[in-house]
Structure formats: structure tokens, C-alpha cells
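Researcher: We're teaching a course module on how sequence relates to structure. For the next exercise, students receive a sequence and then see the predicted structure as C-alpha cells, so they can try to spot secondary structure elements on their own. Here is the exercise chain.
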Amino acid sequence: MKAWLCGLDDEEMSSVSSILTFIGIEHSTSLTAFHLPDFVVLGKVISSFELDEMVPVISLNESREVEGDYNVWFCPLPWRSQTLSSVLKEIKQLHTFPQASGVNLNLHVRHLEALLIRQALVSTQGVVSKAAQNLQIQRTTLIEKMRRYNIDKSEF
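Model: And here is the predicted structure for the students to work with:
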């Protein structure tokens, strides 16, 4: 799983980062680190929150109002790995079961497309022309999609 950390102060960053590292969750404060994180952790510093995608939110501040139709868990610090595990199980289930309001097809198609591009680049050891050939698309199209999904061929 991957998490984006937003608006955490130094104390929150230290606590949250150590727990996420302990339970094996990749995390970053950079929006571009992941195409789409599995969930977002909001700290006390951030006053409002809105993303283009409906990503589950874990808020460290119980009094925060989150604009939009997000799944939100209020989990003030200190966290324990057992406490967080139950929330993460629910988040994982959100990815496997369609929401009552429906499935965001665009989101799932982009996620699948990025996954297939990464797999093609892994299998060709980062050779873009071979990966494009395997995906049966033009090399320039693949390059454009790699830019869109922030995929760098040097990772492979």
C-alpha cells in the first residue's frame, strides 16, 4: 500500500512515518511520488482538503470537515499498529468491492493502464520501444502516457 502524507507537523510526521514504515507502507509528502495513493493521511496543519480522485482519508484531527464524498477515518495520535490495521483492512476492501454509488471507471482504467505500462517496462528492462511494441501502441503514445502517469524509464 501507498500513502500520501499531507499537512503533518514535525511531531505528527515522526509518529506517522515510523508506524507506516513499521507496518510496511510506502509513504511520501510529495503529490507526484505515486500516481494514486491507496490512502491519504491529513495532519493538523491542513485546514481544507480536496483531490480530483476519491481516495480514502485518515484524519489526525477529529474536528476537520472533509469536502467531497471521501471515506474518512478519524484517528488522532498516538497510533498503534493494531488500531491502524483495522482501518487499513477497511481501505483494502474499498479497492476490491464496488462502492454503493458505483465504480469510477476512469480511475480504474488509468490505474490498470499505469500498471500495464510499468509491467511492460519491467519486462523490457526499461526499453521504451520494446515496451510499446509489447503493448501494441506507438512509442510516442507510450512516452505520452508515461509522462501522464509520472513513470520514469530509469526506474526499470
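Model: If you want an answer key for the exercise: Strands lie at 2-6, 26-28, 39-42, 57-59, 72-74. The first strand starts at residue 2 and ends at 6.
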